[in-house]
Amino acid sequence: RGLTGVIHPSITSLTHLTHLNLSHNSLLGSLPDDLFSSLSSLQVIDLSFNRLIDHLPPPSNKISQLQVLNLSSNFFNGKIPSSILVPSVSIFNVSNNSFSGSIPIDNDSNHTSLTFLDLSYNKLNDTIPPGIGLCSKLQVFRAGFNSLSGSLPDQIFNLADLRQLSLPVNSLTGPINDGIMNLTNLQTLELFSNQFSGPIPSQIGNLSRLENLLLHINNLTGPLPLSLANSTKLSALNLRVNNLTGDLSSFNFSPLQRLTTLDLGNNNFTGELPKSLYSCKSLTAIRLANNQLTGQISPEIVALESLAYFSISTNNLTNAAGAFRILKGCKNLTTLVLSKNFLFEPVPDDESLGDPDGFQSLRVFALGGCQFTGQVPTWLGKLKNLQALDLSFNLITGSLPGWLASLPNLFYIDLSNNLLQGGFPNDLCGMPVLTSKEASDKVDSSHLELPVFVKPKNASDQQYNRLSNLPPAIYLSNNSLNGSIPIEIGRLKFIHVLDLSHNKFSGSIPDQISNLTNLEKLDLSYNNLSGEIPASLKEGLHFLSSFSVAYNDLRGLVPSGGQFDTFTISSFEGNPGLCGPPTVHRTCPQPLSPAAGPRSNSHRKLLTGLIVAIGYCIGFGFGFGFGYKQNFIVI
Ligand SMILES: *[C@@H]1O[C@H](CO)[C@@H](O)[C@H](O)[C@H]1NC(C)=O
Ligand SMILES: *[C@@H]1O[C@H](CO)[C@@H](O)[C@H](O)[C@H]1NC(C)=O
Ligand SMILES: *[C@@H]1O[C@H](CO)[C@@H](O)[C@H](O)[C@H]1NC(C)=O
Ligand SMILES: *[C@@H]1O[C@H](CO)[C@@H](O)[C@H](O)[C@H]1NC(C)=O
Ligand SMILES: *[C@@H]1O[C@H](CO)[C@@H](O)[C@H](O)[C@H]1NC(C)=O
Ligand SMILES: *[C@@H]1O[C@H](CO)[C@@H](O)[C@H](O)[C@H]1NC(C)=O
Ligand SMILES: *[C@@H]1O[C@H](CO)[C@@H](O)[C@H](O)[C@H]1NC(C)=O
Ligand SMILES: *[C@@H]1O[C@H](CO)[C@@H](O)[C@H](O)[C@H]1NC(C)=O
Questions:
Q1: Membrane-crossing residues (predicted)?
Q2: Given ligand 7 and candidates 512, 516, 537, which is best to mutate, with the most ligand atoms within 8 Å of its CB?
Q3: Does pTM top 0.85 for this prediction?
Q4: Bridge partners, 91 (sequence order)
Q5: Ligand (nearest to CA of 536)
Q6: Cis before 81 (ω within 30)
Q7: Is residue 424 situated within a structural domain?
Q8: 447-454 and 388-390 as β-strands: parallel, antiparallel, unpaired?
Q9: Atom 11, ligand 6: residue with shortest CA distance
Q10: Residue nearest atom 14 of ligand 7, based on CA coordinates
Q11: Which domain holds residue 66?
């Protein structure tokens, strides 16, 4: 109803009130002190989705009729008094607040009516009380995204009606023990992002109603239990980032006909790609990245008609040409991540791969780190839906193709760490998504079926759940590109990252780079650029947080002001001709180099003194040291 303001204390005069529903308003302030003690007839309280704050008022055993209490999505804090959970309550939802302390269940309490208990997204920081086992009617128990610690109490396995056990993103430890098999009604088991250890219970397949098994990001060991094939209702299975082992091809996936997403990535599975997987007709996403799988992609995979996401990066697959010929037949593939396989094979260049019957739905194509030889294959130019292309860390030769700009949706190109030669083609400066607002606005922001990860060389993996969150970027670092940076570069107005480092570019830095007003990272280091750093850069590039022109042949005054005051000497070192802070030559020689021209001469002299003064005051403390030296690879 758009209600605002506080809940007036006079509401407590409505002593016969049974239902109070003020949800989805903009109510502020704290609850009237005697709310619970006065409204003793209340059966239903729903105050969810408001802006209520503060501690809960002292509860009272007078609210003995209460069945539904929903205080979720507010800003309540303090402890949740256990006396508020009177025996009659069946639905209790306080999720998405800032409550701290313990789960409000005493070890001798009698919550035999409680069916839904949702405590997720708070700051609870105790262990899970054994008393939970006395809530014998409990069907849904959610307490994820807190700071709960300790292990799962055995009593939790008494909850025979439990359909959903959701405790992700806590600090829970210990094993998931065999008691879990008592929970025969379980449909969702979500324990991801904890520190559970030990094996997955071998008889977990007895949970025949299981639909979602999400145990990723723990410390689980041992094999994928063979019994899981008996959980034929399974739809989502995510065991990513554990220490699971064993030959994956010995697991029979074929009974799992409802399986839609499978993520077994970042484990230590061995063996060949399990062929039985190809009979799980509902699969839309498979991620087996970062294991030790061997062998080849087999033709049966085309039977997976709904497959949209397939990532098998960082394994030991062979025969890229065969793999591409087969995968081309997966008509609905939008995300294909094959990075770090097929070592030292030629990059498949069969022109028919780009035919109208091949790869036409592809949006992400990641082929980094394969040590592919050959040139950038021209059939890629036919993949009109392509948005992100990663060919980094290969041995690709030839020139940087300007025809990449003919791909109407492409906004992320990584060709870094290859052997490309020749110049930066003017055509590439016309990439539609990077030059036109219309095209840039059209970038699809829907969720990927599973995330892709973009791994900086030396940091933890960065996770992208939507493609539209990838930075619009051109990475060309560490090739042998030469010639000058074309002035047309100024057209790439929507680019966020431009990395031309470790090449042989020469000539001056074009003024037009200052037109790239969305630029966050600009790396021109380790080239043979000469002339001055255009002063215009400091005016246009308001978002620049990472900048380097180190190790070139630049001279003259380093621009100051704007973002330039945040860059340290490391951004400029290796250019003996540069002067002014933060370089080692704190003042420029007088007179300034002739190249500076009469236009800016006096203006600069004036500034120099000023900058030196400021320079001493702020020292070298600023700057974002992270960033531009990272090399990314989509995995
Ligand atoms: C309260 O009202 C909202 C909006 O009409 C409704 O969605 C919600 O189910 C109600 N809450 C209860 C507990 O009935
Ligand atoms: C609790 O409320 C939140 C919204 O604030 C909702 O998303 C969640 O599904 C509810 N929990 C249960 C168990 O119904
Ligand atoms: C994971 O388990 C192994 C032994 O199984 C242990 O050495 C390691 O410390 C554990 N790691 C974490 C993060 O708990
Ligand atoms: C699946 O369940 C059947 C019947 O309960 C049982 O005989 C079989 O051993 C189970 N399969 C696996 C792989 O555990
Ligand atoms: C450039 O690439 C080569 C080959 O991949 C690699 O050995 C070298 O370390 C890279 N250099 C830089 C500066 O990244
Ligand atoms: C990676 O990180 C380690 C520790 O932080 C550091 O010593 C090392 O120099 C880094 N390597 C690179 C290539 O940045
Ligand atoms: C691009 O940059 C040039 C030189 O800095 C400037 O004259 C021009 O107005 C800019 N164009 C646009 C569209 O911003
Ligand atoms: C760098 O550029 C200059 C011209 O500006 C040229 O004379 C020199 O040979 C180049 N050096 C390298 C290593 O390419």
A1: 606-628
A2: 512
A3: yes
A4: 68, 116
A5: 7
A6: no
A7: no
A8: unpaired
A9: 458
A10: 515
A11: 1-174
